[in-house]
Design brief:
Blueprint: H1 15-28, H2 39-46, H3 50-63, H4 66-84, H5 86-89, H6 93-104, H7 114-130, H8 132-136
């Protein structure tokens, strides 16, 4: 919206407010950051042999629209910094993946496999965080 925000306002001091807003932004997108039509491809990529997963996920990310790729790179670099400060914030690769996996990657229509999907969603996000430089370069 066009509302002017004062980020120095004390209501923004609680990190949970900012994190919640970030998650809500991605959850409210008309289509997830990992687009619907690639959901099954990403799930199949994470099911591959460990050495092939990174390459498969990287190739799939390259197939996403450029704005999705750019947003994904910025978001995952930020989330990696969150994990790197895990001693202070108690966030691990796995916990960040659990929080963001279902928000960033979901099927267009939920089926009875919600629990199975959640495992794969988390694994995909965790893999990208762990292999950030291999996936996005540098």
């Amino acid at each position: 919206s066009d509302e002017k925000l004062d980020l120095n306002d004390s209501k923004w001091e609680d990190i949970h407010v900012i994190t919640g807003a970030l998650k809500m932004f991605f959850r409210e997108l008309p289509e997830p950051l990992f687009t619907y039509n690639h959901f099954n491809d990403f799930v199949n990529a994470i099911k591959q042999e460990p050495r092939q997963r990174v390459h498969a996920v990287k190739d799939l990310i390259k197939q996403l629209p450029k704005p999705n790729q750019d947003t994904m790179q910025v978001l995952f670099r930020h989330l990696k910094r969150v994990v790197e400060n895990g001693e202070k914030n108690r966030m691990t690769y796995q916990s960040v993946a659990i929080v963001f996996g279902p928000t960033l990657l979901k099927p267009e229509k939920e089926t009875g496999n919600i629990a199975v999907h959640t495992v794969y969603q988390n694994q995909i996000v965790e893999l990208i965080l762990l292999e950030l430089n291999s996936v996005f370069g540098r």
